[in-house]
């Protein structure tokens, strides 16, 4: 049974509102259980709209105590307040009018964390996508833009800080123990960008002088005592502001920019105008408590939210179907930022790993949807890796196809033309078509067709003609609701490497448009001939992952090893190592399943160890080279009938073989690169730690005793090394007394630090093997587990389901049954959190029959529950379809 109406929203039904919202004036009288909100909304009827048309506003779980039209009570015959809407009739034909709505809220019982809620005694809001309607009745859609005035009244002792969007107007005490503050945001904005924060918080302050010389006050608010852990975030913010000026010519536009870190948050962070709200996980860092990955995430997410000020806030989405307009583009911008701040190659490798691990399975399963969907039932379920990461890749392909100069011109045109508007993907693409004079109609299919394209390639070399012929064929697999697909415009960067590693200059190509090193694949089948190729080259295809595709290219191990050694594009070297490893891991899984000995390819071992030992390469790259494709990567390559235990066992045996062959190299790397310097979170230092820890993990495989990891644990002077050592201990020797001791030490040392405790839960939730379930259940009984804190729930239950393939996919199905129970329990409090964790089961159909049957039954159990949120019911029904 469903508790929502189950209504599906279609893009084609879009039409503008009947009424134009001119201004918003909000007054909040804050109280944990009885907050009063008065919303004064000035509207006028849009030209051409029927004079009798009513005003229809959105609402969700609201208690309305008064409703006025131009300060007079509206007679009950003139309005209907339903569950999800408020309809008002008898409104002026042309003149502007003021609607005043008073509602009462209970922030402290709001466990959905949407609308106004409490987190650690702080009042906080989250409005994207449709949370504002939980505060007051409102035209809660992104194409309704207005300036906001916000008055906040609260108890002065417990809420000395009163914040909202825009610039501070003033405030004062009120004599009754309360005080007030007023804010005005002059930039018209949609309701999803509204924010209010009130409470008692510590502050880190700085200033930034913009391109045109304006001073902006920068403030990051955190819990008292945590101020020192916000300095890295502040530094990242200033670098982001500078980068957006330098690279995109975008300047900040208010006198103040604020970030508030809260410990209860459904997502990563939120770009509310001038007042970003962050999951504190993406703000707080110091060497003792944050890993290098945490630092990199903080830098990226601070940048992401800041960049939204132009791509999202100044130019916003016409409707939620256009979500990728702001998210895909902003992810692209934050990726480029991180690439400029760190190693571009290593950043690209991380992006592609992430895309393959998260987006490819989504695109290949029941939840697949286009980057720009045309229908949805619950918009919260479309904050997906397809909209974000594939959306970013599509933007990157525009830059690849147009080249840097035209891409920049297209972005400039977009900012110029659409500033202050709520627009569509078509508006965005039109800017690039216009500046480049290219027809981007076929390219736009990337926004409309779901599924990862599969490109099959083969080559033949003609020594007499000195030509290399490349045959390409593309296929986009069917996805829910889209059975037949058109061929796409796929930009493939290529390199032709000769025996000595030199690259062939690309000239005189027939059969495809070629720009620079980009081959444009646009037909279903295309034969491309490169001339003046003096000897048979190794072809490096899809360099830099220029297109987000699956590639089937029968290439010899020798060619792959050659590319791994000589490609000038370092990403392509990493890819070649991956391509060497993957077939070996697939056959290892088959051998393990059949109980046969696993064989490790000598070419793989040699190439991997050569990269690991190559002092000419940056350590972070070498660490990436050593990280074999994950168990999920192997499962995806196998495609179906997967047995996670066999995949795990095969991969373990390959790791062991590499470890044995490289023991000397790994020993040297561990012992020589020991960190004696003071800690620094910069990318180069992080790279050294990554290489040492990768080597340590192999070395422990080779030695098969916990000694080295215990030593590393005891010697660690930073969280990266400490948590890596603990992970190795827990995953390799879960029952060893050394592990028990290390886990206890860790827990005790960080008992006061929620974010570090999350790591303690995560490390244990990801210990492979069927004992994981009992361990997770036991950890749920730990007094430190807190089912109301989203980070903690994700750390334990989320990582168990997402990141423990053998532990979760137990052959007896107990993992799925456990998850079904947990999803129902979480759903009762926080539907968004429940729905997101449930997507861990999105690839259930690619499991072998026995497991798939158990998974289906668990999903059916969820679907049959008496009371389900729209969020969970939407996901579970799509997964079962
Ligand atoms: N818009 C946020 C971002 O990506 C994500 C978000 C969505 C946060 C919905 C909260 C709710 O930057
Ligand atoms: Zn975003």
From TrEMBL:
Domain Peptidase M1 membrane alanine aminopeptidase: from-to ranges: 232-443
Reactions catalysed according to its record: Release of an N-terminal amino acid, Xaa-|-Yaa- from a peptide, amide or arylamide. Xaa is preferably Ala, but may be most amino acids including Pro (slow action). When a terminal hydrophobic residue is followed by a prolyl residue, the two may be released as an intact Xaa-Pro dipeptide
The protein's required cofactors: Zn(2+)
EC number annotated for this UniProt entry: 3.4.11.2
Superkingdom of this protein's organism: Bacteria
Any single biological process term in GO: proteolysis
Keyword Hydrolase: yes
Domain Peptidase M1 alanyl aminopeptidase C-terminal span(s) in chain numbering: 558-881
GO molecular function: alanyl aminopeptidase activity; metallopeptidase activity; zinc ion binding
Group of enzyme by EC: hydrolase
Annotated keywords: Aminopeptidase, Hydrolase, Metal-binding, Metalloprotease, Protease, Zinc
Annotated Gene3D superfamilies: 2.60.40.1840, 3.30.2010.30, Neutral Protease Domain 2, Peptidase M1, alanyl aminopeptidase, C-terminal domain, tricorn interacting facor f3 domain
Domain Aminopeptidase N-like N-terminal: 25-193
Peptidase M1 alanyl aminopeptidase Ig-like fold domain sequence ranges: 451-553
Family of this protein: Belongs to the peptidase M1 family.
NCBIfam families from the UniProt entry: pepN_proteo
Name of the protein: Aminopeptidase N
Gene, per the UniProt record: pepN
């Amino acid at each position: 049974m469903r508790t929502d109406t189950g209504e599906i929203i279609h893009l084609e039904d879009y039409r503008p509102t009947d009424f134009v919202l001119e201004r918003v004036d909000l007054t909040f009288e804050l109280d944990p259980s009885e907050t009063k909100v008065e919303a004064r909304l000035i509207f006028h009827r849009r030209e051409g709209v029927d004079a009798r048309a009513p005003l229809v506003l959105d609402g969700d779980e609201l208690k309305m105590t008064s409703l006025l039209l131009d300060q007079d009570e509206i007679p009950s015959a003139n309005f209907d307040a339903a569950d999800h809407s408020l309809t008002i009739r008898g409104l002026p034909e042309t003149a502007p009018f003021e609607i005043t709505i008073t509602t009462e809220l209970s922030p402290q019982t709001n466990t959905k964390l949407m609308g106004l809620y409490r987190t650690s005694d702080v009042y906080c809001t989250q409005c994207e996508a449709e949370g504002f309607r939980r505060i007051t009745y409102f035209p809660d859609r992104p194409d309704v833009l207005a300036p906001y005035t916000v008055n906040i009244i609260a108890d002065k002792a417990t809420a000395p800080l009163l914040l909202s969007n825009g610039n501070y107007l003033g405030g004062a005490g009120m004599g009754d123990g309360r005080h007030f503050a007023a804010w005005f945001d002059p930039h018209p904005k949609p309701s999803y960008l509204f924010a209010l924060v009130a409470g008692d918080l510590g502050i880190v302050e700085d200033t930034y002088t913009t391109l045109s010389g304006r001073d902006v006050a920068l403030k990051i608010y955190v819990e008292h005592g945590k101020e020192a852990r916000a300095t890295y975030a502040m530094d990242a913010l200033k670098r982001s502001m500078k980068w957006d000026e330098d690279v995109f010519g975008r300047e900040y536009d208010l006198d103040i920019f604020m970030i508030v870190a809260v410990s209860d948050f459904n997502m990563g962070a939120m770009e509310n105008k001038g007042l970003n709200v962050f999951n504190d996980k993406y703000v707080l860092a110091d060497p003792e408590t944050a890993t290098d990955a945490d630092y990199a995430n903080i830098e990226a997410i601070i940048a992401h939210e800041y960049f939204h000020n132009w791509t999202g806030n100044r130019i916003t989405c016409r409707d939620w179907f256009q979500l990728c307009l702001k998210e895909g583009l902003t992810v692209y911008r934050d990726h480029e930022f991180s690439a400029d701040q760190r190693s571009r190659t290593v950043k690209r490798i991380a992006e592609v790993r992430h895309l393959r691990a998260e987006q490819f399975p989504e695109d290949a399963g029941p939840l697949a949807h286009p980057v720009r969907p045309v229908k949805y039932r619950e918009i919260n379920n479309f904050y997906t890796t397809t909209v974000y990461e594939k959306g970013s890749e599509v933007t990157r392909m525009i830059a690849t196809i147009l080249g840097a100069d035209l891409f920049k011109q297209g972005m400039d045109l977009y900012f110029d033309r659409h500033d202050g508007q709520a627009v569509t993907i078509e508006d965005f693409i039109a800017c690039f078509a216009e500046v480049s004079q290219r027809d981007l109609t076929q390219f736009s299919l990337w926004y409309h067709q779901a599924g990862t394209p599969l490109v099959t390639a083969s080559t033949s070399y003609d020594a007499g003609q000195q030509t290399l012929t490349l045959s390409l064929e593309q296929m986009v697999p069917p996805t829910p609701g889209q059975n037949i697909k058109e061929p796409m415009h796929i930009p493939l960067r290529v390199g032709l490497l000769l025996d000595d590693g030199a690259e062939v200059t690309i000239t005189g190509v027939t059969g495809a448009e070629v720009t620079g090193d980009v081959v444009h694949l646009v037909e279903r089948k295309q034969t491309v001939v490169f001339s003046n190729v003096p000897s048979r080259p190794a072809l490096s295809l899809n360099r830099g992952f220029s297109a987000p595709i699956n590639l089937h290219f029968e290439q010899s191990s020798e060619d792959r090893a050659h590319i791994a050694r000589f490609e000038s594009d370092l990403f392509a070297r990493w890819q070649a190592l991956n391509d060497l490893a993957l077939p070996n891991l697939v056959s290892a899984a088959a051998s393990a399943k059949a109980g046969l000995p696993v064989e490790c390819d000598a070419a793989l071992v040699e190439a991997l160890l050569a990269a690991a030992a190559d002092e000419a390469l940056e350590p972070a790259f070498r660490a990436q080279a050593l990280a074999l494709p994950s168990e999920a990567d192997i499962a995806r390559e196998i495609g179906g009938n997967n047995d996670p235990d066999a995949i795990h066992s095969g991969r373990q045996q390959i790791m062991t073989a590499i470890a044995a062959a490289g023991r000397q190299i790994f020993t040297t790397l561990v012992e020589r690169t020991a960190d004696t310097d003071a800690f620094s979170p910069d990318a180069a230092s992080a790279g050294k730690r990554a290489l040492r820890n990768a080597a340590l993990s192999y070395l422990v495989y080779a030695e098969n005793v916990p000694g080295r990891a215990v030593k590393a644990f005891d010697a660690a002077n930073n969280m990266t090394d400490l948590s890596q050592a603990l992970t190795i201990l827990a995953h390799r020797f879960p029952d060893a007394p050394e592990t028990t001791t290390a886990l206890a030490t860790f827990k005790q040392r960080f008992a006061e630090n929620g974010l570090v405790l999350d790591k303690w839960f995560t490390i244990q939730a990801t210990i492979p093997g069927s004992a994981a379930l009992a361990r997770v259940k036991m950890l749920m009984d730990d007094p430190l587990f807190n089912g109301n804190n989203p980070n903690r729930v994700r750390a334990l239950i989320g990582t168990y389901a997402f990141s423990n393939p053998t532990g979760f996919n137990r052959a007896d199905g107990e993992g799925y049954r456990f998850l079904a129970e947990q999803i129902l329990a979480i759903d009762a409090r926080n539907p968004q959190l429940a729905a997101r964790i449930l997507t861990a089961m999105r690839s259930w159909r690619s499991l072998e029959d026995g497991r798939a049957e158990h998974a289906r039954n668990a999903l059916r159990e969820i679907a049959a529950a008496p009371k389900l949120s729209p969020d969970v019911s939407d996901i579970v029904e799509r997964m079962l379809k």
